[in-house]
Amino acid sequence: MHITSDEKKAESALHQHFIDRGIAVLGAGNMGSALLKGIINAKLTPPQKITACGVHLDKLQKLSEQWKVNHTLNLVDAVQSSEIVLLCVKPQTLPKVLNEIKNSVRSEQLMISIAAGVKISFIQQALGQEVAIVRSMPNIASTVDEGATAVAFGQFVSEEQQRIAISIFEAVGEVVVVQEEQLDAVTGLSGSGPAYVYMVIEALVDGGVKMGLSREVAMKLAIQTVLGSAKLVKESQLHPAILRDQVTTPGGTAINAIHELESHGLRSMLINAVATATKRSEELSKLISRV
Questions:
Q1: What's the start-to-end Cα distance of the chain, in Å?
Q2: Where exactly does CATH 1.10.3730.10 map onto the chain?
Q3: Among 87, 145, 171, 215, which is disulfide-ready with 42 (CB 3.0 to 4.6 Å)?
Q4: Nearest alpha-carbon partner for 71 in 84, 57, 86, 85
Q5: May I ask the CATH class of domain 193-282?
Q6: Which residues pair with 84 in a beta bridge?
Q7: DSSP classification of residue 141
């Protein structure tokens, strides 16, 4: 029997881990706010047990009013009142944040970092104690609950804490568990991947406009085509090549278009894009480790 994506999401919700613990979100920007919203919508913990922390008071107040969470400008206060700490600040900001909170971090706390390129060992050393650390790589689609997130666990993360971390990211999309050394490749694929897809959508729209469609019509068709195609791959669980063959008839339009794409190296360009982004992620990780 065919299971729809909505049914799968509902089934996933039944298995989500009820946390019911204090959570501090350090860095209430796009990703931090998305995780906060996902945690509340999934009912993983009550809003009154969540504290949003940032540098812009007006934004924090709006977030607090909308989601009924606590807010503070003080990193130490946020950490001391929580059992789980989400490190949602930019990679270049993280060393300063870690230095500020290190004396307030407790060994039983769970630290979850979304900072690209910052290794678990770096965070561990900066905090100066044996604490559970989860490193993650979510992507921008988490802001609409369709994220793709990879997580890697530090040596002090218990099975219970692993389930907690997975549940938090499942609240905003799909989650895979990888070894930490694979996170650079994740960054090259799903972390940077939305940018590649946006370029594909933009190019499809321009193609439609070139052939006489209005930009509004072309945009609507391109967006739905990409969305529907991805959903079909996910729900059918068929290899993309099989689905591609289903829409390519002998001598038809699709096979001629595919020939044009292949002759200009579309496949190689996308593979190289992932490889190039992966290498850059590795370079940035080395740079941050020297801070």
A1: 54
A2: 193-282
A3: 171
A4: 57
A5: mainly alpha
A6: 23, 110
A7: G
Span of 15-19, 161-165, 230-234 with lowest mean pLDDT: 15-19
- Beta carbons within 8 Å of 124's beta carbon, 6+ residues apart: 130, 131, 133, 154
Following CA atoms 105, 108, 112, 113 in sequence, which dihedral angle do they give, to the nearest 10 degrees?
A: 40
**DSSP strand E in 156-265: where?**
173-177
Mean pLDDT of 148-165: 97
pLDDT confidence band for 286 (50 / 70 / 90): confident
Is the whole model's pTM more than 0.70, yes or no? yes
The closest alpha carbon to 86, from 61, 126, 114, 122, belongs to 114
- The residue assigned the tokens 């945690």 is 39
Looking at the chain, the domain(s) classified CATH 3.40.50.720 span 5-183
Across-strand partners of 110?
A: 84, 132
Residue 37 CA to residue 45 CA, distance in Å, equals 11
Q: Does domain 5-183 have CATH number 1.10.10.10?
A: no
- Residue 262 corresponds to which tokens in the numbers above? 């292949």
Assign 3-class secondary structure to 56-107. CHHHHHHHHHHHCCEEECCHHHHHHCCCEEEECCCCCCHHHHHHHHCCCCCC
